[in-house]
Amino acid sequence: MKILLVEDDVFIGESIKDYFELQGNRVDYYSSPIKALEEIYPNNYDIFLIDINMPGMNGYEFYKELKNYASDVPVIFITAYSDIDHVEQAFDLGAADYIKKPFDLKELELRVKRLVFKKTNEVKITENYRFDLNKLKLFYKDEEVELTQNEKYFLEILVKNIGQVVDSETLKDYVWDGKDICSNTIRTHVKKLRNKLKENFIKNVRGSGYKIEKQQ
Amino acid sequence: MKILLVEDDVFIGESIKDYFELQGNRVDYYSSPIKALEEIYPNNYDIFLIDINMPGMNGYEFYKELKNYASDVPVIFITAYSDIDHVEQAFDLGAADYIKKPFDLKELELRVKRLVFKKTNEVKITENYRFDLNKLKLFYKDEEVELTQNEKYFLEILVKNIGQVVDSETLKDYVWDGKDICSNTIRTHVKKLRNKLKENFIKNVRGSGYKIEKQQ
DNA sequence: CACTTTTTTAACATTATTTTAAGATTTCAA
DNA sequence: TTGAAATCTTAAAATAATGTTAAAAAAGTG
User: Fold this and answer.
1) Residues 6+ apart with CB under 8 A from B189
2) Residue A215: pLDDT above 80?
3) Residues A133 and A81 placed together within one structural domain of the fold
4) What pTM value is reported for the model?
5) Given CB atoms, is B69 within the 8 Å cutoff of chain A?
6) A79-111: string of b/e by CB count within 10 Å (b at 16+)?
7) I need a surface site. Which of A17, A169, B72, B188 has the fewest CB within 10 A?
8) B86 and chain A: CB distance < 8 Å anywhere?
9) B29-69: per-residue pLDDT in tens?
10) Could you give the CA distance from residue A61 to residue B189 in angstroms, rounded to a whole number?
């Protein structure tokens, strides 16, 4: 799971980051929303944790920006306020949840898990293929398909967005962590991956990116 | 909005019913899940509000039944428990949300509204065709029509100005980013697009440009 | 270090899309 | 009715995106 955390109180921020990283998650922590906007690809996250009261740009405005690029990523607003108006504003913006300070980290974990692991962690790709989003493992009829690290990340982001196109900027950022790679690298990886598959469920959408078709 | 409410505590049940009915909604309230199962048609509701701890049949079991007939209706579980096992069980079942007792009715309202009035950015073009302005996808009766990049942009600008003529300067500027293209290019694209459609909703307005007629 | 595996690059092949050109058809007004 | 302008249609050329292959570079392993 990859988390974007934006919280101006560095003590709270670091605590949350440590807590989730200890459980094997990836946490990108920013204490300033402005800085975050400059550096991130919103689509790469499973969830946003955003403080509402921050200097420079408040959490609502910040989320409005993110939403343009990642309308499907759930957000939990962290707030020191408790009045219903703030809750309402949050929900109007499409918030998935909100949590009031001070809170127990365990409670935050519950709320995060509730949103992120909405569905089962195994996603059915085709009749025979399924992908385990926790263990990043691909199975063909109960038999594991051996994947390299990059292939795992590649499938992870595709499976997370199953039915939707994942563009190459998102792929670069997610699989290669923003590193500058040659234009061919993605294509070569797709080729290698396809070679390992008995059915080619990795579809290219010309001019946009790659996707896995959603089953019905 | 039509709500199914199943809650064994009659005081809470009636309060919720009154609250939502005051706002012009219809609420079918049952204090017993067994009774509810005998009388209702699950598919008639926009949302289910289900208490978890009920005598006779708990909320999870009750929802499992409903789900067979109405898998798309979102459910909010009402619970007095706060431990993770219950939350997990709820979400394994596909719960859209849960809310802990005691809660503010306004908060429940916000959570309900968020689920029921999810905003979409889909524009109806004809009886069978609709266009998603977020994802730039065209659908014919729930089936996506494959479009090339330029075709997507072309439809986007037409749909955004539905009912109005879009002149060729605007088209050039929007689809081709101002690039100098031969006078025939637009026509060829229109032709290709029309070939993909079962109904021709792209009308030419001689001397002006193209438009999509507004539905009523 | 020597070996294997994985990742990246480069060069070229293939395919899909976009654009152009040129003839056919439609439309509208004189 | 007729001619010019606009639009439609078709095919083919030009361009751009993706696919393929092999080999070099980098990373991991004992």
Assistant:
1) B150, B151, B154, B175
2) no
3) no
4) 0.57
5) no
6) bebeeeebbbebbeebbbbbbeeeeeeeebbbb
7) B72
8) no
9) 999 998 898 888 876 788 999 998 888 888 888 988 887 77
10) 39
Q: CA–CA distance from B147 to each of A41, A165, B54, B183, B195 (Å)?
A: 26, 13, 51, 22, 11
Q: What is the pLDDT of residues B115-126, one digit of tens each?
A: 876 656 788 899
For every residue of B179-207, DSSP letters joined together read ----TTHHHHHHHHHHHH-SS--EEEETT
Assigned token pair, A107: 């409670």
Return the structure tokens found at B20: 């939502």
* pLDDT (0 to 100) of residue A57: 87
Question: B4 with B17: CB under 8 angstroms?
Answer: no
Q: What is the dihedral of CA B1, B6, B7, B8, to 10 degrees?
A: 150
Assess whether B81 and B132 both reside in one domain: no
Note whether B91 contacts A207, CB cutoff 8 Å: no
Where on strand D do bases come within 7 A of a protein Cβ? Answer: 6-11, 17-22
* CATH number for A148: 1.10.10.10
Q: Which domain holds residue B87?
A: 2-116
